[in-house]
Amino acid sequence: MADQLYLSLWYPNFRLTSLPAAIEKVMEQFGAVAGSSRVKSAAAYPLSWNEAPAYQRVYDKDHEPDEVDSEPRLAIPAAMELLHDDFAYEFELVWELWTPDRRGGLDAVWSREPNVVRIVGFGPQFDEAAWEQNGHVRIDFGPDTPFLQEEVDLDKDAADYVKQNVQLLVDFTNAVQQHGGISTRLLWSESGDSLAQKLIARLQSVN
């Protein structure tokens, strides 16, 4: 069963006014690894995730003004124009990961497909200080499926595609560690299982 995968980041002596710059730095590292840091959508949630967003914008990459406005240097201040300590700010970005498609027959055909990554910045009072467990900034990678492909029979070629996906994850995590100005990071899953241990076991099953 797919497990949700997250990377939580904590910063030293953190202040709410530092949050936009911290998010932009994370996006910068994402762009360096993924090839693009353009924002797909942005939202600001008051109080908790149960509330309707106080700000929301979806960017159309084929619409010329949106092509410019979706750059982090513009999308971040637009969503965070008014900083509130009880808000969370969520930005969706996209990177391409190798994905199998069996629709053409029994053998999976692999291609790079867009996968959404969410970068979330937490105000200190949002959802009863959720940042304490989630980090000042949390990156939501979505299901761990691209990094394990547990439903696919892995041969050597398929394992190489999975390894390339994992390498992107590792490169991004290391880039944030080296250049993000963080004090602590934690790569974790919703179930609490270790991705590294599951990956080792998975790759040991390669035909």
Tags for this model:
7 strands; 29% strand; 7-stranded antiparallel sheet; 207 residues; single chain; alpha+beta; 34% helix; 7 helices
Write the layout of secondary structure elements.
Blueprint: E1 4-10, H1 19-34, E2 41-46, E3 55-58, H2 64-69, H3 72-79, E4 87-101, E5 109-122, H4 131-134, E6 137-143, H5 145-148, H6 156-179, E7 184-189, H7 195-203
Antiparallel strand pairs: 1-6, 1-7, 2-3, 2-4, 4-5, 5-6
Helix pairs in contact: 1-3, 1-6
Question: Would you write up a description of this structure?
Answer:
The protein has 207 residues and is of the alpha+beta class. The protein has one domain (4-203). It has seven helices and seven strands; from the N terminus they run E-H-E-E-H-H-E-E-H-E-H-H-E-H. The protein has helices spanning 19-34, 64-69, 72-79, 131-134, 145-148, 156-179, 195-203, and strands at residues 4-10, 41-46, 55-58, 87-101, 109-122, 137-143, 184-189. A seven-stranded antiparallel beta sheet has the order 3-2-4-5-6-1-7. Helix 1 runs antiparallel to helix 6 (156-179). It is globular and about 50 Å long. The protein starts with a strand and ends with a helix. The model has no long low-confidence stretch (mean pLDDT 90).
